[in-house]
Amino acid sequence: xxxxxxxxxxxxxxxxxxxxxxxxxxxxxxxxxxxxxxxxxxxxxxxxxxxxxxxxxxxxxxxxxxxxxxxxxxxxxxxxxxxxxxxxxxxxxxxxxxxxxxxxxxxxxxxxxxxxx
Length: 117
What we know:
With 117 residues, this protein is mainly α. It has a single domain (12-115), classed as Arc Repressor Mutant, subunit A, CATH 1.10.10. The chain has four helices and three strands; from the N terminus they run βαβααβα. It has a three-stranded antiparallel β-sheet with strand order 2-1-3. α2 (62-69) packs across α3. It comes from Streptomyces yanii. This is DUF742 domain-containing protein. InterPro entries: DUF742.
């Protein structure tokens, strides 16, 4: 039976090499990945090569990379942690969401600005 159009010839779980946990600390799906200037080894897997090529122009999150590579996020985490451990990627935690603004602080600021007139 041949795969349908758009279906991968190699199952995505093979990207992990049969491992159940990444080699380094697991990355958040919104962690930012940045390619380093380190030369890629010739024996790099095709999926890792594709991830590095995807990051050449700039930074992307893990989930964005997964979408571009058409891989599950969990498999992309494995690729990224392996590449980070070998020095080919830098990872950064996601930017935290902004906290709420203290309304009383804003009101005091407005009173102070009005008193300057």
